[in-house]
Design a protein that fits this description.
single chain; about 170 residues; alpha+beta; 4-stranded antiparallel β-sheet; 4 strands; globular
């Protein structure tokens, strides 16, 4: 008997080429809501979710990417969800990573393509990046653990699950 949740987990892949079609805000908020229910160390819920959905703000992020990396690290996505927490807290990376994973799985369940983007903390450490970070209302002392690019794949048939190494699981 198939299990829908396990199928979603096993078939989620990263998309690196998005179409011009934008995901509805309703679906984006459903995805963000899934992140809200991720596990949290000692239930402190220190992760914060920043939905960057306006064309103006998405373009600010894209311009940073183009300036610093000389490429669009968002692959043309029209929505980015940044996940951040207090820099230096012992649970920030774990909590934010759980939030991100919940959002990636929710996106897959809604037939929305996604990709983990890691570069924003680096981008926000620049002079120009700090201005953008401030304009988005993200506290300066927060680090961006990762972000979730959302959209519709340019070529859904190109999204293939990659093989996993054989010795990944060890039973002790």
């Amino acid at each position: 008997m198939a299990n829908k949740t396990l199928d979603i987990i096993k078939n989620r892949v990263s998309c690196r080429s998005y179409s011009e079609k934008k995901v509805s805000l309703k679906k984006v908020l459903q995805i963000a809501e899934a992140g809200k229910f991720a596990p949290s160390g000692m239930n402190r819920q220190i992760a914060n979710i920043y939905v960057v959905n306006s064309k103006r703000n998405v373009e600010k992020l894209r311009k940073l990417s183009l300036k610093i990396r000389e490429k669009d690290c968002m692959y043309g996505a029209k929505t980015i969800i940044l996940v951040a927490g207090p820099r230096g807290d012992r649970f920030t990376f774990q909590d934010c990573s759980c939030v991100l994973e919940n959002m990636f799985l929710a996106a897959k369940a809604l037939n929305i393509a996604s990709c983990w983007i890691n570069q924003f903390d680096e981008f926000f450490s620049t002079k120009e990046g700090l201005k953008v970070k401030k304009s988005l209302g993200i506290p300066e002392e927060y680090c961006i653990v990762g972000s979730c690019a959302l959209g519709y794949a340019n070529d859904p048939s190109a999204l293939k699950v990659k093989e996993r190494k054989e010795d990944f699981i060890k039973v002790l």
